Amino acid sequence: MQWTLVIPVKPLARAKSRLSDTAADALRPGLALAFAQDTVAAALACPAVKDVSVVTDDPWAGRELGALGAHIVSDEPHGGLNAALAHAAAAVRSTRPESAVAALNADLPALRPLELARVLDAAAEFPRAFLPDAAAIGTTLLAAREGAQLRPAFGMDSRARHRASGAVELTLDAVDSVRQDVDTGADLRAALALGVGPRTAAQAARLLIPGQ
Questions:
Q1: Dist CA 162 CA 22 (whole Å)
Q2: Given its phi and psi angles, is residue 26 left (phi above 0), alpha (psi -120 to 50 degrees) or beta?
Q3: pLDDT for res 100
Q4: What is the pLDDT of residues 68-81, one digit of tens each?
């Protein structure tokens, strides 16, 4: 099964505020963009991925991620993350109604294409499925096969909310790169330990993180 991924990217000037203890205000937009670039590049290299749609209204992010080969969808609802994802999924299915669609976080800088393929192959067994994040509280991927609505419920305690919505929780070993999103300095260190993409590595080198 080939999947279309929808990846949300908020305005970079407001991104990653919880990294303030690790990255200065002037550095966080570039760091957030690097996360998204490495995520999109890895997703496009995944054998289970047909294409990637990025939903964003940030011109810088749209330009850079579009250059990687992502399709850019404007955030027309302006109603927050879940509304943006539902809009992007609907835009995909307006032209390809039978598409299998998965929402993927934009802050997975250590993402490995073959690990992502394992997760998507497992998700293909269910109408809707999700992968919890490394903290086991949130969600990094929510998938909906053809005929099923995405029904995203990202945000606080999204693992519990996606489970309550009827989505099947995927329990897989050796897919750490798909689970390691980055919100805090500790998250960034964990991603660096896994091995991040080249753009994040270049940005992280500017932060002078101890031990890196």
A1: 30
A2: alpha
A3: 98
A4: 999 999 998 889 99
